[in-house]
């Protein structure tokens, strides 16, 4: 009973989350139904189209790994339980996205970025730093991240081969979910970030996406 009544400090919660974090492996997630289950198989793709689709889905996979790292790091340093819950719920949905991208990569006879551990650990550190800046800043970071991801995914819909129905179905569902994450963060009190920060975020994302496309 004493344990049930214990009030955990912020440090206690952070240490607990970090323990869970170190058990987490980038790219791992529980199995979940893909939105492509009722999507007909893609029409025959040329070798170049397969390689292009695989590269784009590898970028999306890397982005979802980074998202898990960001949400995990931000949740560790969040000050309010409501913020922690919002981040954890969004992180669970990102795990679904990660699984969908992983499954699609397998179908395309490809695999994730070789730099996946770097994307994950770097994002955890960045997420923790943003969380330390306060919940409103952290939620604003979520909203801006999702705004940029929304544009990124919309661009992928234009780049994916028209006949690659499975990849396009996944990206469309991810796009809808990311828009919802951004709106939720704003409604929860996220503050707009200064333009230099937004510009730096965009530049950093560009480095990751261009690298993950090739490796």
Helix content estimate: over 70%
Q: Helical stretch count? A: 8
CATH architecture: Up-down Bundle
Radius of gyration: 18 Å
Q: Please give the CATH class.
A: Mainly Alpha
Helix and strand sequence:
HHHHHHHH
Q: From the 3D structure, determine the CATH topology.
A: Ferritin
* Helix-strand makeup class: mainly alpha
The quaternary organization reads as single chain
Name the average pLDDT.
85
Kindly report how far apart the N and C termini lie: 52 Å
Largest sheet: none
Strand % is under 5%
- What general outline do the C-alpha atoms trace? elongated
Number of domains: 1
Write the layout of secondary structure elements.
Layout: H1 2-5, H2 10-23, H3 47-77, H4 81-107, H5 116-132, H6 135-159, H7 165-187, H8 195-214
How would you characterize this protein structure?
This protein has 215 residues and is mainly alpha-helical. It has one domain: Ferritin, core subunit, four-helix bundle (Ferritin). It has eight helices and no strands. The longest helix has 31 residues, at 47-77. The termini are far apart. The model is unreliable at 1-8 and 21-31 (pLDDT under 50).
Could you give a quick summary of the protein structure above?
This protein is mainly α. It has 8 helices and no strands.
Keywords:
215 residues; mainly alpha; Ferritin; 8 helices; 75% helix; elongated
């Amino acid at each position: 009973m004493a344990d049930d009544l214990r009030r955990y400090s912020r440090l206690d919660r952070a240490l607990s989350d970090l323990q869970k974090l170190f058990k987490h492996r980038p790219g791992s997630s529980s199995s979940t139904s893909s939105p492509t289950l009722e999507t007909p198989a893609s029409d025959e793709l040329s070798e170049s189209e397969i390689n292009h689709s695989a590269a784009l889905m590898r970028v999306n996979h890397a982005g979802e790994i980074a998202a898990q790292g960001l949400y995990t790091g931000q949740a560790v340093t969040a000050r309010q339980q409501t913020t922690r819950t919002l981040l954890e719920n969004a992180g669970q949905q990102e795990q679904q996205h990660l699984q969908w991208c992983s499954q699609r990569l397998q179908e395309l006879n490809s695999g994730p970025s070789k730099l996946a551990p770097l994307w994950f650990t770097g994002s955890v550190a960045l997420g923790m730093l943003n969380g330390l800046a306060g919940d409103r800043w952290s939620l604003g970071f979520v909203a801006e991240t999702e705004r940029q991801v929304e544009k990124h995914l919309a661009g992928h819909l234009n780049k994916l081969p028209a006949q690659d129905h499975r990849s396009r179905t996944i990206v469309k569902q991810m796009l809808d979910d990311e828009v919802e994450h951004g709106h939720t963060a704003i409604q929860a009190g996220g503050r707009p970030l200064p333009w230099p920060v937004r510009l730096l975020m965009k530049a950093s994302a560009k480095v990751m996406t261009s690298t993950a496309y090739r490796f």
